[in-house]
């Protein structure tokens, strides 16, 4: 339990810093002792102020020890135990663990002797290095650092190629092969940069605020409140706390109600913790997840299941054992009892809150902010869900003003079902885009959404009924106005089929940017590049063209499933003040970091990340994502870099999502001035 607690603590401490930590790098060497005996030497090169822990540390009393394990095989045997050199070992008090521990600094050396038994055949020895490293304030835990040793009857024992790569022997020519150059640029000194970029930087900071997703989370929480699973619980729970027989002043009951609301927020914050762990393992792992074909198909199916659950055809619930466990916890009393009550509410209301949380999760995975956006959304959701319990406990007379439970709760639930159904096709569209299936192009997507919201309109007007709907005696003003509002949205969707004569594409819909496929992804008006601009989707080809025409480059790191990318392409780039730069002054190179098309065999390389770890490039998305992080130290999209025609000079500091057309125009204008001054 203590080990588990510390792992959680380690995660929280590590992720409070927005950076990639990799303070320990391992090297492996093979030393021949005799014909069939070898020493496998593991050397940990440790950054200053960091340390790993001795293999002899007690995992139940403090930090996790360094463990180097080998697989079991009859082909060889280990001779003796793993040795640990006392080179830079210090036994001292550790402020994090509040105890005396054995730390290894600077360079730690471990050695394991192995004896070959099967000398006539080739075989492989596999193993793993597991370690924890800390400085004075934070820790990281690396559970998996795999290595392989190959034995050959002629060559003897040696590292295989993959292990050599992991030990740091990366092909120095990989960047030349993949991108035609190494990550070294000169920086333009144009006079326009300082003033322009200060405005852009301020704009970026504003647009990347987590308050937006927090407010969306609050909105989702209020929707959850208006469902049959949650709404009836408000007066029941508040009454339970305020009718406190043991405390006539009811202050104790009020305190518990407020604590109850706080614990609801805490429960939903805890749900976001695993995604921070993913985000710390690999800086672009959430992007990998959000664009994974099978995960998007899974989301599509799940949302379909959620939708029909909301329609009332069946009920979804978490295992009853979970509810039983939390209900028992309520009997503990005190603070822990209140916490278990909050946890019980979260579990029993899952059939209503689960789909809304699923939408929040899926949306955060595809956003630039990743795990922190999810945390912001979860915080907003929890606040909206927990706040009413605290407020009604403070002002119990307000409960009388609440509307009575009834058929309107089920109506709310069914409406949410239609929204879940619409969102389901968003995820199917993501899979279709990144895999280039061509099944759900803009015409098909808009047609499906028109049908969904048309059926929603008919439902609101009482023309369609679902299993738990009560008979509508008379259409209320609210119901009529809601129906006409949804009908107006249907008409708005239909306007997406209007053809823009200038770009020869369908007209982009502002409110659907990023939700609907790009307008160029079409059966009738196909176009590989936004707004019929000339563009290149390979960096080296684009650079060759830029050199031939002597024009600077707009390097556009984008994604098929990138929401903000679509907003820029469909609502900023087409403006007359902007598009002239793309048509006359720049060469556009668009690199899709979620392109799942497989790389040619010669480009399937293992490369080193900026944090020192390695990754295997399998598809074009991997290639361009690595290009962005390796060359420009960024992993968010959209991301715009202005380069000289030879791609050796960065003309202005790169920028991200910039919806303000004036700022974006100033960025392009400054880059052009910088190019002319070279």
Major β-sheet profile: 8 strands, antiparallel
Helix content: 40-55%
How much of the sequence lies in strands comes to 15-25%
| Uncertain runs | 1-20, 161-170, 199-208, 245-249
Q: Between the first and last Cα atoms, what is the distance in angstroms?
A: 63 Å
Rg to the nearest angstrom? 30 Å
Overall SS class: alpha+beta
**What general form does the structure show?**
globular
**How many E-type strands?**
22
The helix tally amounts to 22
Please tell me the total number of domains. 3
The quaternary state of the protein chains shown equals single chain
User: What's the rounded overall pLDDT mean?
Assistant: 77
Descriptive overview:
The chain contains 22 helices and 22 strands. Mean pLDDT is 77; it is low at 1-20, 161-170, 199-208 and 245-249. The chain is an alpha+beta fold. Helix 15 packs antiparallel against helix 16 (442-460). The N and C termini lie far apart (63 Å). Strands 3, 4, 6, 7, 9, 10, 11 and 12 form an eight-stranded antiparallel beta sheet that branches. It has three domains: 2-169, Immunoglobulin-like, CATH 2.60.40; 196-204 and 525-676, Glutaredoxin, CATH 3.40.30; 212-405, no CATH class. Helix content is 46%, strand content 17%.
